[in-house]
Design goal:
With 293 residues, this protein is of the alpha/beta class. The chain folds into two domains: 153 residues, NAD(P)-binding Rossmann-like Domain (Rossmann fold, 3-Layer(aba) Sandwich), CATH 3.40.50.720; 118 residues, N-(1-d-carboxylethyl)-l-norvaline Dehydrogenase, domain 2 (Orthogonal Bundle), CATH 1.10.1040. Helix content is 51%, strand content 12%. It has 13 helices and nine strands. Strands 3-2-1-4-5-6 form a six-stranded parallel beta sheet, with helices on both faces. The longest helix is centred in the middle third of the chain and has 29 residues. It is globular and about 60 Å long. About 2% of the residues have low confidence.
């Protein structure tokens, strides 16, 4: 059992799961969150509170909403120590993460972009992949900690590349969810039992892992949150901003954004991202394609 103390900043859905994974690996974990009450369940499981993990720990895992918030939090906590390794699991903007890595390097701090390709539930089950960019020597020094939170990892090169790869991943993943939602809505509209339709799809050439992770939730209209719809909308906006800067069109992602915005405006942004299904509610009657009222 490792006695190494690892810091953790950001205790949202995924951040809390990352702490649980670290605790399960036998590590002592010093946790920090802007609102301290979110730490209580993790402290009950063995974590300890820290007013500043950056001052106490040689390796700190960060899981926040945007790169802007990562920078603000680091600046607010301060006390960066040379030799510290920051493992940032935030899905961020590639240009910002590159600049942040360069800024931290000037302070002797090794920055590893490490966004996680998995939902919070998948991560807790040990099914996550960490997409890592940054100095290889820091990656090797932090490998045991990264493996504790995500058993599989891939190093994709210099700063910025992990954010880019996560955006590519999320583009495809989100469109897979949208396609499944539309397919199930269509199945109901033509008179097929959606549960049976899902099981048939899982056996055929239209299969995707999304059917395993989100299919049953869509069939049962279970929108309990594994990853928030609004958070995915944030990622789609970053994707489209990158595309605009590069002068390329992503028409499917443009449509996806408009549908996500419609669902968010209807009040479902804090629900699971499978609530994209709500885009297929019959507006004129207020009923769902999947469940006859």
């Amino acid at each position: 059992m490792s006695q190494e103390k690892v810091g953790a900043i950001g205790l949202g859905l995924l951040g809390s799961v990352l702490v649980e994974r670290l605790l399960q690996s036998g590590r002592r974990v010093a946790v920090y969150n802007r609102t301290r009450d979110k730490a209580a369940p993790l402290i009950a499981k063995g974590a300890v509170w820290s007013d500043n993990p950056l001052a106490e720990c040689d390796i700190v895992v960060i899981c926040l909403y945007t790169t802007d918030i990562v920078e603000e939090t680091i600046d607010r906590l301060g006390e960066l120590r040379p030799g510290t390794i920051l493992i940032d699991t935030t899905t961020g903007d590639p240009r910002q993460t590159t600049l942040l890595g360069q800024k931290l390097e000037q302070h002797g701090v090794a920055y590893l972009e490490s966004p996680i390709a998995a939902s919070s539930d998948q991560t807790l089950r040990g099914e996550a992949v960490a997409i890592v960019a940054g100095p290889l020597d820091a990656f090797e020094r932090a490998r045991e900690v990264i493996t504790a939170i995500a058993p599989r990892s891939v190093h994709v090169g210099p700063w910025g590349n992990a954010a880019k790869m996560k955006l590519v991943n999320n583009l495809i993943l989100g469109l897979n969810r949208l396609a499944l939602a539309e397919g199930l809505a269509f199945a109901r509209a033509v008179g097929l039992p959606v549960g049976d339709a899902l099981e048939c799809l899982k056996q055929g050439n239209a299969y995707s892992v999304v059917m395993d992770v989100k299919g049953r939730k869509m069939v049962e209209e279970d929108f309990s949150t594994q990853a928030k719809l609004s958070q995915h909308l944030k990622d789609v906006r970053i994707i489209l901003n990158e595309a605009s800067l590069l002068g390329i069109d992503l028409p499917m992602s443009e449509l996806h954004r408009s549908l996500l915005e419609r669902v968010e405006a209807a009040g479902y942004g804090e629900l699971d991202n499978c609530a994209i299904l709500k885009a297929y509610d019959r507006a004129q009657s207020g009923t769902s394609f999947l469940r006859r009222k």
